[in-house]
Amino acid sequence: MRYGVSYYPEHKKEEELRHDLELLKQSGINTVRMGEFAWCRMEPEEGKYEFGWLEAVVKELGESGIQTILCTPTACPPAWLVKKYPDILYMDNRRIRRPFGGRRHYCYNNEIYRAYSVKIAEKLGEAFAGNIYVAGVQIDNEPAQEGTGRCCCPVCTEKFHAYLRQEYGSIEAFNKRSGSIFWSQEYDDFDEIPVPVNTIEVGARNQIDAYYENPTVRLQFERFSSGSQKEYQDLQAAALRKYLQVPITTNATGLATNSIDYYDSTEKLDRYAFDFYPGLRDAKVDSFPYAFARGVKDGAPFWVLEFMSGGGHRLGGSGRVQPNPGALKQAVVQSMAHGGEMMLHFQFRTYPFGAEQLNYAIVDMDGVPRRRYREMQETALLLKKLEPLETAAFPREAAVCFDYDSHWALRIKPVNDPAFHYVDYCGRLYNYLENIGVTADVTSLKADWSSYRVVILPAVMVMSPGEQAKVKRFVEAGGTVIATFLTSVKNEDNVGYTESLPAGLTEVFGSVVEEVEPVFDGNHTRLRLCVESYEALCHMEETEDNVTETSDGMWSELLGGVSETLGSYLEDYKEGAKVVSAFTHGKGRAYYVGTDLEPEVYRIFLKGVMKEAGVHRSFVEREAGVELVTRFTEDKEYLFLFNFTARETEVVLPAGFQNYLTGEKLETKCRIARNGMLIAAGRRGR
User: How far is residue 59's CA from residue 54's CA, in Å, rounded to a whole number?
Assistant: First the structure.
């Protein structure tokens, strides 16, 4: 595993540079990331390129065993470029140009800016061609972050119209498919269609609050903006590949904080990489982003190019608490356990100046190495011991489907906002699986599902007929699908289906949605999972599994049809109405969950489905806050256990495991220290 930090030699005086480089050499890390915001040093004036200062640092670190991830500097165009071409500046949804003085203040569709970006990428690649100390390249920095993912300038507007022409062919087809007759919005030409005034960008502002726009236009603009970002990065990737034969990527910002569909955008990149800043003080590090990262490129290892390093100030003005001793080490190994191939802390030394001054780092502003630096040294040593486990496989039997069209559609026209958020709900179902001992993947509607026994579809609201057919084929061939409320409600144009829901899938689920409503604090309704069907399903193993009564949450769908009733309402006019169903279709099983269930009951339900489908579960008794990751080799099973409970805890293992790091035989009852971990190895198929 590549392990290290982000570093900014262009900020340093010679004395500071020498001091920092010595600390880096002594740290035990093997990777640094450099160059992402240094365009004005790489090209101080147009056509004059200077890379010697960077080459010298790359060489010195490389000779000490530390390789470099180079970055193209295009997130921060230099002042001379903006002065010469002010039209390259980004225009937000309020039609306000973003001025020079921050970062990401460029239009990614502007051909002039694209040409300059390609040129600096080419020159960077040419300067480091054949350099044995370069391990990879990051393009730009956090594309579309900080409200810069949906430029509305004249260039983008014109390209959006061209995109719509290509998608629909004729304006008549667009009018028909988008339902533009509503509110008298039929068009005579594509150039009459406005770029949306509203936006779902994190941190952006809508100028007109009560302004409701066509959902088709809104969704198509999300797709267009995502594709435009992909075009921009791919131009740089092609320029770099003329000179460099190393992995090329860019750093994403989690699953969905910006406009980019990462399944699509990483197609021509060598890795999926992202930045992750979880709390590390008595807090569980959510592994849902790691499972998603693993699935973006169909199980390929991923990179984390920026990760938490410490506490103190932060860019937004609030602060971060310091990590507990051991928490940095624990989090890095957790990333590796989930398939991480690289983990770089942001940053090595605290900035004394600039917009990010006083930010958290491994080493404080005074350059004195303290406990975080020493823990980084310990972590680097530990990772060397864990190298043999990096090739261990994941079970790949169960997956949660995450879909960008559904995410965008549910932000454009929310359902029970703020109680229901699509991204959070997908993460919750993933974590329920982890709680019951299932190491699950996160996948897309377009991915290959052939290895999975169970696929969960959380509120996949937007489904095309082709995607409906894929679900049907999967179940007919013997797969198990669990769909939740809000499944297959709208088509690929973000227009509601006029057939019974779940559209195109009533035959598969044997259920028809007959009535829907949001669930607020004042209208929760009790329900139960029917004992006769449910006990047979679960083969009740534990006494607490007899809990079958629960309350609905977030959304409620009353189901009709020929499916089996697994859950029904107990009161009010809904009494006796079906809300959870099961149905055999072809060789497989299809479950429909028409509401949100309380966590423990949801976990019980999932246990039964996983057992029926033959999904592997690792049986480790542990309290909430202890995460379990399971990996395999041909003859071994490895259990990675991470204690996030803020205190020492006890776990109960199956018999026959030993401590991977020490080789000692483990008792069934084991203690794990606060912010500690245990890696247990046992014979596969005991």
Answer: 9
Identify the CATH number of the domain in which residue 382 sits. 3.20.20.80
Between strands 2-6 and 31-34, the pairing is: parallel
Q: What is the pLDDT of residues 14-59, one digit of tens each?
A: 999 999 999 999 999 999 999 999 999 999 999 999 999 999 999 9
Residue 414 belongs to what domain range?
A: 398-613
Annotated binding residue at 153? yes
Q: For residue 107, what are its two tokens? A: 């239009």
Query: Is residue 564 annotated as a catalytic residue, yes or no?
Result: no
Both 355 and 418 in a single domain? no
Which domain-ending residue is among 387, 407, 429? 387
CA distance 224 to 371: 46
CATH number for the domain that contains residue 410? 3.40.50.880
Q: What is the CATH number of the domain that holds 666?
A: 2.60.40.1180
Q: What angle do CA 360, 363, 369 make, to 5 degrees?
A: 150
Q: pLDDT tier at 531 (50, 70, 90 boundaries)?
A: very low
| Catalytic, out of 36, 142, 557, 627 | 142
pLDDT for 547 beyond 70: no
**156 among annotated binding-site residues:** yes
142 given a catalytic annotation: yes
The active-site residue, picked from 306, 557, 564, 637, is: 306
Does position 292 have pLDDT exceeding 80, yes or no?
yes
pLDDT digits (tens, 9 = 90+) for 330-377: 999 999 999 999 999 999 999 999 989 999 999 999 999 999 999 999
pTM attached to this predicted model: 0.95
Q: How does strand 526-529 pair with strand 564-569?
A: antiparallel
513 and 431 in a common domain? yes
DSSP three-state, residue 581: strand
Write the DSSP symbol of residue 488. Answer: S
| Cα–Cα distance, 340 to 2 (Å, whole number) | 9
Verify that 316 and 402 share a domain, yes or no: no
CA dihedral 441→630→294→413, nearest 10 degrees, is 40
What total number of domains does the chain contain?
3
637 touches 684 (CB < 8 A): yes
318/440 same-domain check: no
| Annotated binding residue 103 | yes
What distance in Å separates the CA atoms of residue 524 and residue 522, rounded to the nearest whole number? 6
